[in-house]
């Protein structure tokens, strides 16, 4: 049986095939916890393989914790065998549609599943060749780059490059005003630790990126929402809320808003900053979609000069979600405090990833890739928008750039019901109330156009909407 399975797994090393087959037998419970495995010599003879191949396979499984080595006795199946069966588990349809719902479903989805609701590009849309060149360059780096801690501020050459990129958007910041983080999410987490006490009030857009809700709840903040319009937050409501609630922070996207795709107008930006100054409000400007823009939109940090605004960014959306690297841009005294906090929570910086990101961004191919990507997204935006309209799903606005369409479903249709029904067909959608603090987006849904081009998405949506109407 093992030999037969190995023959079916061509293209992998023999040790990998032996290990994979044993994993499958553990997951299928034909090898139960505590069961003794064949001896190295015995399995090698049965499979007609060398003993070194079987030793390699067993060592891999021991390292994974799948089996245990007992000196003088042999190899046994570990008691913690259950995790190997998780990959076979179906989607959990009974989960609440909360701020974690879309993330859980998207991250747990299999390779064959479709993910119109996720927040990232398909791997084939990312600069894979550039990443490979960067990895090859990094493989030739000196020992310090490969093995040593990075400085708490982060790789200086990358901070210099980020400083130059910021100036293209009107934000003047020296490299010493930039601190690298593991991701945009870690950057916001550090800022919340630095600026908030439990019970402090934080202002968010309604709708906004759902993980803002989750992160702020983890910091025990009081969250208050302000309706978002096609030109930014509703300024009249914003003024009333900051006067009544006196929030400590306001967290927003300014360039390409998530989930709506809207762009902040200069007039709204000036009014928001005037209110922030009047009521001693700090603004965190999340700008992780900056490179998707065709023409730079107004930046709060540029108007403010980094007095009340903290600017953050990330390369996860345009380079790779596997190579996590983000950054914080703030006034010097705040960078000093954030650096101490970073040392306390994660010690040194992630030098290896920073070196890789620097290599890729320094390659002239990245700018060419982004030009191609922007045009590709524009075409996808037009195609997906038209096909959704044919189903009676109307975009809230036509975004100037980016990957998101914020859409209104036909009257009387609950987006959460549609999302649960689609999940049964292995399609992950993003229902509106996951983004809405007030739960006022019941019939809205966010679509990632790069992940919504497969015809099956529209077929399944059409069938579900027909059933929901009947």
TrEMBL record:
| Domain of life of the source | Bacteria
What are the UniProt keywords, alphabetically? Aminotransferase, DNA-binding, Pyridoxal phosphate, Transcription, Transcription regulation, Transferase
Q: Which Gene3D superfamilies match?
A: Aspartate Aminotransferase, domain 1 (3.90.1150.10), Type I PLP-dependent aspartate aminotransferase-like (Major domain) (3.40.640.10), Winged helix-like DNA-binding domain superfamily/Winged helix DNA-binding domain (1.10.10.10)
InterPro entries given in the database record: Aminotransferase_I/II_large, HTH_trans_reg/aminotransferase, PyrdxlP-dep_Trfase, PyrdxlP-dep_Trfase_major, PyrdxlP-dep_Trfase_small, Tscrpt_reg_HTH_GntR, WH-like_DNA-bd_sf, WH_DNA-bd_sf
Pinpoint the HTH gntR-type domain residues. Answer: 12-80
| GO molecular function term, any single one | transaminase activity
Family the entry assigns: In the C-terminal section; belongs to the class-I pyridoxal-phosphate-dependent aminotransferase family.
User: What is this protein's record name?
Assistant: PLP-dependent aminotransferase family protein
